[in-house]
Amino acid sequence: MVLTRRLRLLSILAVTTVAGFAAAAPAPPAPTPAKSTSQQRDEVSITVYNQNFGLVREVRTIDLPTGRAALEFADVTQQIQPETVSIKALTGNLHVLEQNYRYDLLSPQKLLEKYVGKHVKVYRYNEKTGTEEAFDAEVLSVAQGTVMRINGEITYNFPGRIAFPEVPSNLIAKPSLVWMLDGGQARQKIEVTYLTANLNWNADYVFVINDTHTSGDLTGWVTLNNTTGTSYENAKLKLVAGDVQRVQAQGYGRGSSYPAATASAPARPQFHEEGLFEYHLYTLERPTSLLTSEQKQVTLLEAQGVHVDKHLIFFGAEYYYRGQYGQVVSNQKVGVYLDVENKETNHMGMPLPKGTVRVYMADKSGAKQFIGEDTIDHTPRDEKIRIKMGDAFDVVGDRKQMDYKIFGSCTSESTWEISLRNHKDTATEVEVYEPVGGDWELISQSHPSTKKDAHTFTFKPNIPARGEVKITYKVRVKWC
Length: 480
Known about the structure:
The protein has helices at residues 2-24, 108-114; strands spanning 34-36, 41-49, 53-63, 67-74, 86-89, 94-102, 119-126, 131-141, 147-150, 153-156, 161-163, 176-183, 187-197, 199-209, 215-226, 232-241, 271-276, 279-284, 288-290, 294-307, 309-315, 327-341, 355-362, 368-376, 384-407, 411-422, 428-429, 431-435, 439-445, 449-453, 456-459, 462-463, 468-478. It is mainly β.
């Protein structure tokens, strides 16, 4: 009976031991994934948004083992958003079982980190023998300098070059997507799309006006910047202009400020423009290469003989009418503006992306000089563009409060004198903008005025050469 129990116990121990060995047995190594690089690209297209991101679409032909297989999709950008990746089979059947984004990139520091607890070779040059001496070393730590065990001693920052037996399999030279796929055939064509940061474009405009400030030639440039770490050769390029809602806001860059030469005749537009949802899409009608760490400029538009309206504007302020000031400002600057109608009748009419307009004008010798710049927002066709050029040098103004009376708790009457002085040898027209809050009424005025809107009235006097014009008016204001 005792012998039977012992035999049963030994049998249980044997079964338990075998089961333990089976559980502890290492899993079979993962199959080496098939690799697809940019050399297998059949087609690539890029849609760049002027909010520092882009959409990449690639078509590649891949070779896979039938059934389940791993695929390393290399040469994606370092700024890819893995959660936006979409893969689709254009030929055959393909199912994605798992996706991994590998971005542990190969570098000297990463190599050392992967070899902590392992042995490497350290070679140090011996000046006496003129040869390199080899030392077997164990890497102990790389946290704050390299700590090694060499010949039984612990040392740090040992001089010499380090040689590694191999590159660890979990270090890669470039970021890659790795998929576990289930496909029905070995050779397939797939389409992969994803969003990436650090693709950006902006518009820059060069506007050369004539000496009478009445017309000019406008050239629009598209400036593209690719800092994704990946190059795209012979790509189909599209640009989206508009304020696209994103969860995380993106940056905005600036482009080149070099003036373009004025062409003798407008060239054929390189971009085809069309509406896209509530935005505008511009498609370059030829392939182009967008290399990494490259800035590229492409002509967006050319328009000649664009009519310009020049305005000199003297601005007031709403708070002037709610207190007693005396002389408010002296020698106040007069702003200079250029207005352009974005219409086909004005040789334009294309929806203009936001950007910077830089204005040039030839001096008496014929050399072009820079005279101002301003930013414009996205401008639809048939809308007006206003460019702030700066402040006039020879036209200045003063503003005085001549009288101020209060009626009740929130009503006042004030009398004003505006003096505008023109020091140029030619007459000039100045627009005086007077913003008023609350309920207002002009009681008297020395010059005719125009009510622009519910809170603004204007004067438009013509000031003679080297002359002065004084405007006086009385206004009653009620603000409660």
